[in-house]
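Hello,

Our lab assistant flagged a job as stuck in the queue for most of the afternoon. It eventually completed. Since we weren't sure the result was trustworthy after the delay, we are filing this so someone can double-check. Below is the sequence as submitted and the structure that was eventually returned. Let us know if re-running is recommended.
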Amino acid sequence: MKVRQVESGDQGTARDVPPGLLDIALDTRSLFERLLALSEISSTAGTCLHACILVCSCIKAFLPQQQALIRGGDGCGDGGFLDANGVIHGHYWVECNVGSDRWIVDISADQFGSEAPLVLPYAMAHQYIPGDQGVVDRHVRDEVQTMAQPSLPIAEDSNGARIAS
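-- returned structure --
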């Protein structure tokens, strides 16, 4: 796993990925790989929204002084991820404010041939093209609501306590 460290000469300054953000990116990628394996999913293709929900939740829980937002685009004229071949894809990623700096965190960029996790200063993240944030917010809200639904049928016992049936 590689995380992009910003090297001297990139955009004229030398900056390192903030340590807490680096830890979140590495740890959530490792956890996400294990979850995919348990689910018998062999790649990150099509899993970017779930990956972003995990990353954003961890940033909010463990780095509460930082602001995190899921961004994305549909790849069909309203933003997305521009791969090395110039093809734009529908994709989601996390944008994080660390002090006065903005960073992109993407733990599923490997589905497009990039390294993952990928952590880049916003100014260097030209492959990320944000789409309509209202649409992204609706997709996130809908997915979180779907994820919150019980996966097992729920019933009540004779005392009214909820039990999985």
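-- support follow-up --
The delay was a queue issue, not a problem with the job. The result is valid. DSSP finds three helices and nine strands in the chain. Residues 1-14 have pLDDT under 50 and may be disordered.
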